[in-house]
Amino acid sequence: MELKHFDFLLSSLVKKLYHKDKSITNEYLQEGVIDSQLGNDQVLTLVDTLEPILLEIGHSDLSQNALEKLLEPLELRQDFHQHFLKYWEQQRDEIRSIVRNELIFNDRLSGVSWRVDMKTNSKKISNINQPIAIVELLLSRNQQEREDTKSIMFEIDKTQISNLVNQIEEIESLLEKGIQQKN
Amino acid sequence: MSFFSEKRSPKGIFTAINSLNKFPQQLLAKLCQDVVDALQYKGSVPQVSHYQSELEKNSIELGKNEVQSTINVLFFLYRDASRASNLDQKQFLEILEKQTGITNQAGKVLATIWEREKQNLPSLNMPNVGKLIDFKWKVGVTFSSSISENLVTPFVTINISVSNTDDLVQTHSFEMSVPEFKEFARNLKEINQLLEVI
After folding, report:
1. What is the pLDDT of residues B74-121, one digit of tens each?
2. Is the CB of A128 less than 8 angstroms away from the CB of B198?
3. What are the COMM domain coordinates in residue numbering (chain B) (predicted)?
4. Which of A64-68, A124-128, A178-182 holds the top average pLDDT?
């Protein structure tokens, strides 16, 4: 087996486990490494060893050291071992955000867009021609392999947005503190 | 809020029309035209200072706020008229005279411009944009889950209430991971900066 086969297995398994790609079957994996010296059974054994590790490191967000420890008993060839480490380093952020999004069971924010307008219709004449922002939030939810999105639009004036930003800054400092404590 | 269709008058309209009545005819016609042009994005919003000085040349003293209110009320009236179905010149003038204290002379100027421009003012319809009524948030840390045992990560949950044009309030809730929240925050701060500057 060459490095390219190993790489193929790794990236295909990530597609299967994290991107929920249903086309990655055992047959697909065996086909992909057909020009290696491996027999079909050997491919499946390798897959069975790699899968739980890939699941563990993604869902537990393991560090490189922890990954090393997990790989030790496998006694992989040196270049495969290095490649795995490097591959994880590259994929980590993306996989982390996939797992995080899986933890949002209801609606998540999938988009924000906005524009600033001059108000030309209001209950008070003095409000007309004041600048206001129109904000659109896209909220998405995963429903049985489909994604449902709804749009919420609202207008917001100077005072309101200033208030909002104050609250946003409060949240930011809370998150800062939280992250510092964790580290 | 419909003036021409439902006869509902916004607050401050009488005072604004009072100031409008003081305009010399030609200047009033120019202001109406400027407003209508601005509504079609053909020109920029009329400048208060310009009209103040033109009024002064005619020995008419109006404060900045008073001039601003005349501009605002014209925007309101022409926009509202464009939404009312098939409003002709006569009806425009009649309703205007009945609902506000506008002089016949000033009313005629507004109505003439309406007649001339009404084809060009398409129903300037804004989408159903609600108003933000309430904004609540909480920050939590998920320390375990069925999906991933060890992923300890904070989530921000937002609960917003929006009232639509019929005064119905809808509440929506959504969660964000930290990077998503940062993006959300960035957008809001940008809006804040822009609104401060204008």
Report:
1. 988 998 888 776 788 999 999 999 999 999 999 999 999 999 988 887
2. no
3. 131-198
4. A64-68
Rounded distance between C-alpha atoms, residue A109 and residue B185, angstroms: 12
Residues recorded for chain B: 198
- For residue B80, the chain A residues in CB contact (below 8 A) are 121
Q: Are A47 and A9 in contact (CB under 8 A)?
A: yes
Residue B123 pLDDT class (50, 70, 90 cuts): low
Which residues of chain B lie closer than 8 angstroms to A123, CB-CB? 1, 10-11
Residue that has been written with the tokens 């219709």 in this structure: A121
Q: Do the Cβ atoms of A178 and B139 come within 8 Å?
A: yes
ipTM over 0.90: no
With beta carbons less than 8 A apart as the criterion, state whether B183 and A162 touch.
no
Mean pLDDT, residues A112-126? 78
Amino acid letter, B21: N
Could you give the count of Cα atoms lying within 13 Å of B103 in the half-sphere of its Cβ? Answer: 12
> Cα distance from A42 to chain B (closest Cα, Å)?
29
% helix, strand, coil for chain A, step of 5: 60, 20, 20
Whether A53 contacts A35, CB under 8 Å:
no
Q: How many CB pairs under 8 A join A and B?
A: 181
What pTM value is reported for the model? 0.61
Long-range contact list for B157-162, CB < 8 A, 24+ apart?
Answer: B158/A109, B159/B134, B159/B135, B160/A137, B160/A152, B160/A154, B160/B132, B160/B134, B160/B135, B160/B136, B161/B132, B161/B133, B161/B134, B161/B135, B162/A152, B162/A153, B162/A154, B162/B130, B162/B131, B162/B132, B162/B133
Instruction: Tell me whether residues A131 and B135 touch, CB distance under 8 A.
Output: no
The Cα angle at residue A134 between residues A133 and A136, in degrees rounded to 5: 135
Residues A159 and A65: their CA atoms lie apart, in Å, by 50
Q: How far is B64 from chain A (nearest CA, A)?
A: 12
